[in-house]
């Protein structure tokens, strides 16, 4: 997984407008604000912090979106269910749309809703460099997500790293309105922390209880109570993100990558089949066997796949955390 070259170049151009010291300070302040997870006011409060977000945070949000969209493609038989339009609620600079553009080849229309005028201007400026005409021509709408949305329906509606910044009442109202606008799929993504999972779990519960026609496509193999939540645990996954030299410098990172941990849920109006089981922990790959922790239709299961099981053993050796597992 790598960001599109034109997006990387656009980020680099924005970063070059600031001196390195100012960008480094803005990155440190941004990191502090996100770790504090207090959303009484805007997390990002200056142009320097917006550029810091592009360089240090956007790659991770892009990666999480790309991973979730790729799973939708896989579960709908590799894109046979066409997604032609996307609505991004709380779009920021448009990371979700860039990820969707690389995942869904049939996309032709995009609408992005964001309350911050500076983000809209920056998102539009970055989008001008995309190789996709629909991204360059996307409609950007300035609106607070706590107010009623008057958008038209889209095949895919995304609320990425935004629902958790709202009060529970506002988040629930937005979620149910987003489902009304989702002609095919609704995606909710949050950080892979206990708090982020709590937001996703509440969204999943509300969709099952109150959203007519909402099937849970991923990551869950069922609509029953979440067994991890019931055990006081949390469901999350990870996507490896390559770091650019700028990214490493700003985050003082020695490694050429980082792992973005995220929680998510996908609701669907389609008849796509959810996975029969999901790997919810790193597979334990030992000599002669692999131990998998699965969320299955019967709950959390520990499964030992031995060398004698042939094809299943080979699949288990290649399996990764977060992937579907066929029963």
Question: What features would you describe in this structure?
Answer:
It contains 12 helices and 12 strands. With 327 residues, it is α/β, with parallel strands linked by helices. Strands 1, 2, 3, 4, 5, 6, 7 and 8 form an 8-stranded mixed beta sheet that branches. Strands 9, 10, 11 and 12 form a 4-stranded antiparallel beta sheet that branches. It is globular, with a radius of gyration of 20 Å. The two termini are 28 Å apart. The mean pLDDT is 91.
Question: What tags apply to this protein structure?
Answer:
23% strand; 8-stranded mixed beta sheet; 4-stranded antiparallel beta sheet; alpha/beta; 40% helix; globular
Q: List the helices and strands in order.
A: HHHHEHEHHEEHEHEHEHEEEEEH
Please give the radius of gyration in angstroms.
Answer: 20 Å
How many beta strands in the DSSP annotation? 12
β-sheet strand percentage: 15-25%
Could you say which overall geometry the principal axes of the C-alpha atoms support? globular
The description of the largest β-sheet is: 8 strands, mixed
Helix content: 25-40%
Query: What is the rounded distance between the termini?
Result: 28 Å
Short overview:
With 327 residues, this protein is of the alpha/beta class.
Write the layout of secondary structure elements.
Blueprint: H1 5-15, H2 20-36, H3 47-56, H4 58-75, E1 85-89, H5 95-103, E2 109-114, H6 117-127, H7 133-136, E3 139-142, E4 154-160, H8 168-181, E5 182-191, H9 194-210, E6 215-218, H10 227-230, E7 237-242, H11 245-251, E8 257-268, E9 277-279, E10 284-286, E11 289-296, E12 299-306, H12 311-318
Parallel strand pairs: 1-2, 1-4, 2-3, 4-5
Antiparallel strand pairs: 5-8, 6-8, 7-8, 9-11, 10-11, 11-12
Helix pairs in contact: 1-3, 2-3, 4-5, 8-9
